[in-house]
């Protein structure tokens, strides 16, 4: 009996000691990134390569949306925040944005939908419920299913900003969370219209998902056009730091902006920086 | 039976230790629940204090960006979806339990129960994925947009069906064999035994099972989020897209700040109170009938 309890105590002491060591070790060499679910997969890949080149360093990436990225960078909960939009003026006072890539938002329809072109005005009327049938914009006699994003998503903000809309004015039939849910919803409904990241949509399209990307203002919705800055509905992908970055964070950001990660950016269907 | 000690009324040291340990763990669970409730109150206080409860039940709708937090549409959607799922799952689950208990051939009983248990164990996100890629397009062909109250009810019914079936079967199994044999001895038909003796005696258990299923349907998030369409509106028909309270929290929590965040915590508090009311009801009904 006595032996067993002694053993237990030892065990507990060793466990506590180990975990203390681990956290102390992680403190100096761990980088925490939180924010935009659009940037997270890219940050994860960049982080892996950064870890390989800097043994002993750990890069921890968590999602939760651009707003979380901004908040966490501001409160210091994360070393680096991720936001898939430009800084707002009040945010720019405390935070420094470091652009690592560009992303475009594309309007998607089902592949079987014969409509190949919509003007900004038509898209606006569809999203506010003034147009409710594809017949009115030159398509088949079919009810339009409007797919909108949930409140707080940066994709929604960019969409509303571009079309000069307020969210309460939108008459949505389906409200979605992430890009994948949006693509699956449109792929499963011939009458649906939605908007998602061009990178994600182009990837799904080339892998056989029955969706099509609409051109905007005559410019084709493609990764190439976003890179050249021609596509109207595009956004920067930013890493955020509170003030000028130092130490590990500075090294990571310089690495993420370098040509050494262009292949990773392209692999995620984002658009590398023009240098 | 062989006892390690002759006199069990004076517990050994190990017993005392075990009693203390299990007692303190049970107490810890209760404290944890209280802490969760306290946290919900604390986090939702900002919006409760500034406008009181009234703000959740008045106004044009749920527009957090313009400070409107009317919960009625989502509350209705939650209640209707739960009720609809129960209406579908209850007869199906009960029928399956009755079949397994009284009519199924012996070799079929165990496989049937295994299937039900498997059904109960499927992760809700898998149900959601299936609903999004199969069920919703099917309904969309019939009446767009497909993502609708109907889809939510069907998915929820499928998810709570095993709960209803398994608890009903347990309740039927607990019916005393004396009653069943007595009824058979009196010459009652099998139908008479099932409807006149077994069902009435198992009523309390079946009822608590239904309440348990209702609690699961109320709390289900992921599957409903994927198929219900998530448009905040009071459902007017089965084909209207709706948003339930849990889906609302999941969709917006990671993007919410300030008053909006507090409003989401308040809707979590509301959900918790609803579930607590159901649990209380289950305890009360069950307790009275079993007494």
Task: Describe the fold and architecture.
The complex is a heterodimer of chains A (275) and B (291). Chain A has 275 residues and is of the alpha/beta class. Chain A is built from 11 helices and 9 strands. In chain A, strands 1, 2, 3, 4, 5, 6, 7, 8 and 9 form a 9-stranded mixed sheet that branches. The longest helix of chain A has 28 residues, at 2-29. Chain A starts with a helix and ends in an 8-residue tail after the last helix. Chain B is mostly helical and 291 residues long. Chain B has a domain at 78-244: Orthogonal Bundle (MetI-like fold), CATH 1.10.3720.10. Chain B contains 10 helices and 2 strands. In chain B, a hairpin with a 4-residue loop joins strand 1 (62-63) and strand 2. The longest helix of chain B has 39 residues, at 13-51. The radius of gyration of chain B is 23 Å and the shape is globular. The mean pLDDT of chain B is 88.
Could you give the topology of this structure?
The complex is a heterodimer of chains A (275) and B (291).
Chain A lengths: L1 H28 E6 L4 H14 L4 E6 L2 H10 L4 E4 L5 H4 L2 E16 L9 H8 L17 E5 L4 H10 L10 E3 L2 H9 L4 E6 H9 L4 E3 L9 H5 L6 E9 L4 H11 L4 H6 L8
Parallel strand pairs in A: 1-2, 1-3, 5-6, 5-7
Antiparallel strand pairs in A: 3-9, 4-7, 4-8, 4-9
Chain B lengths: L12 H39 L10 E2 L4 E2 L2 H32 L2 H16 L2 H19 L6 H25 L3 H9 L4 H30 L2 H6 L17 H8 L6 H32 L1
Antiparallel strand pairs in B: 1-2
